[in-house]
Design goal:
Helix content: 25-40%
CATH class of one domain: Alpha Beta
Strand content: 15-25%
Shape: globular
CATH topology of one domain: Rossmann fold
Structural class: alpha/beta
CATH superfamily of one domain: Vaccinia Virus protein VP39
Radius of gyration: 16 Å
Largest sheet: 7 strands, mixed
Number of helices: 7
Number of strands: 7
Distance between the termini: 38 Å
CATH architecture of one domain: 3-Layer(aba) Sandwich
Length: about 200
């Protein structure tokens, strides 16, 4: 099965600088996850399964993921081990009970959402101990896209990005949702890690 989403294409890049930045990003996510104690994990907005695949050696026995895009879920099912529970679902109505996962990971999702506060409330609801969230670091992410000749008509802004955060505004957004987080920079992304 071949899937042509912009997210999947990003991870398949031949650009050595972008590959290095993505590698650094996942190194930071791995370090955040390794600092947690957990027996269960949810990847919220799992896309094609790249995060779960990259973190495979750190995954507990009980792992789940979901995405709104059914094609992405089908691709992830082919790519990932069968014991990982994958389904199509909305981040606004996560199909799990309260406090169901020790760790909830949500990478590169919140910037796409019209109602990020509602999504954060759902992520917080299903997380028992930790949230690990990432978003693009603006305006640097947008500037990087522009310099690579991407999304020129929108000055480098990805057409699906409707929210833009820097470290200060991300902390503020999370605090509004009742979440205190450590925000780290993995240029050009921000990674927030928190105890729930």
């Amino acid at each position: 099965m071949d899937i042509e989403t912009t997210n999947h294409q990003k991870f398949q890049t031949g650009n050595p600088v972008v590959r290095r930045l993505i590698g650094n990003f996942f190194g930071r996510v791995r370090a955040s996850l390794a600092a947690c104690e957990y027996a269960s994990l949810l990847d919220a907005g799992c896309g094609e399964g790249h995060t779960l695949d990259t973190l495979a050696d750190l995954l507990p026995e009980r792992v789940a993921g979901f995405d709104i895009n059914t094609d992405c879920v089908a691709f992830a099912r082919q790519r990932l081990p069968q014991h990982i529970e994958l389904q199509a679902a909305s981040i606004y109505e996560i199909p799990y009970p309260d406090d169901h996962f020790d760790v909830v990971v949500c990478c590169e999702v919140l910037e796409h959402l019209d109602r990020p506060h509602e999504a954060l409330a759902e992520l917080k609801r299903v997380a028992r101990q930790h949230l690990i969230l990432s978003v693009p670091y603006e305006p640097w992410f947008q500037l990087g896209s522009l310099l690579r000749g991407k999304y020129l008509s929108t000055w480098g802004n990805h057409p699906e990005h409707v929210n833009h955060w820097n470290p200060r505004s991300l902390r503020h957004f999370l605090r509004e949702g009742g979440v205190e987080a450590e925000v780290q920079v993995s240029f050009p992304w921000l990674i927030a890690t928190t105890h729930v």
